[in-house]
Amino acid sequence: MISMRLHHIDIADGAPEDELGSVSIAETDDPDSHQFTFEVGGDPHDTDRMASYGVVLGGLTDGGCIRYADLTEGVLTLEFRESTVRSFGLDEAVLRMRLEFEPGVVAALGRGLRTVFTSGPFDFRPVLGGDLAVEPGGQREVFLHFPDVEIAFDELEEIVERVVGDAGEVTGTGSGQTGGNLDIAIWGDVDLPALLRTLAGEFMDAGLPGGSEFHLVGENRRVSLRSLSGA
Predict the structure, then answer these.
(1) Above 70 in pLDDT, residue 72?
(2) Counting beta carbons within 10 angstroms of the beta carbon of residue 78, is it exposed (0 to 12), middle (13 to 18) or buried (19 or more)?
């Protein structure tokens, strides 16, 4: 395990989309020491991986390159994509770093990393665990909006029940001139991107158009079923 100390944090929660923020950690204050920099990405509606958050190491940059990130009891765990392992010259895909600084600084680092990792295109965001998890153990609201099509709400609710299980439930339904909506509450430490990808595929198989959208309330953004399913 690599022991690292905080080099600097210069990102705040809710940074404007046009502002480049970054979180850097390094072994020492020496600029030539081993250092990672995590940068805020771009437009969440873009489908390009390089528009996602970026990771800088030794002068090399890669976007959307982390599969899993966890911060627990001062240990930061990162699992990189295989292509990044090769391009960065890493010894293995999983890297663990013990961050040796005060708890308040660890919390600030967690907030900064969470902001970075939840920026840019949804499909390239890592699964977050430990203190990095967005509202760990809390409730997240996802509203499905779809055009006026011939489909029963009971069928959609059965899909949610089957896919989400004990990790959530349908909290409301409705319909109007512009179409229908299905409100879903999701709680606990779940892989939300994977869950939504599965739901997207199931909903489309049931007859919902690919242009139907999930509204991710906590992140104040929308993503289509088609973009999630890869269709």
Answers:
(1) yes
(2) buried
- CA angle 129/130/133 to nearest 5° reads 55
* Cβ pair 187, 140 in contact under 8 A: yes
- Is residue 214 over pLDDT 90? yes
Output the pLDDT for position 87: 92
| Residues present in the chain in total | 231
Which of 73 and 103 is assigned the larger pLDDT?
73
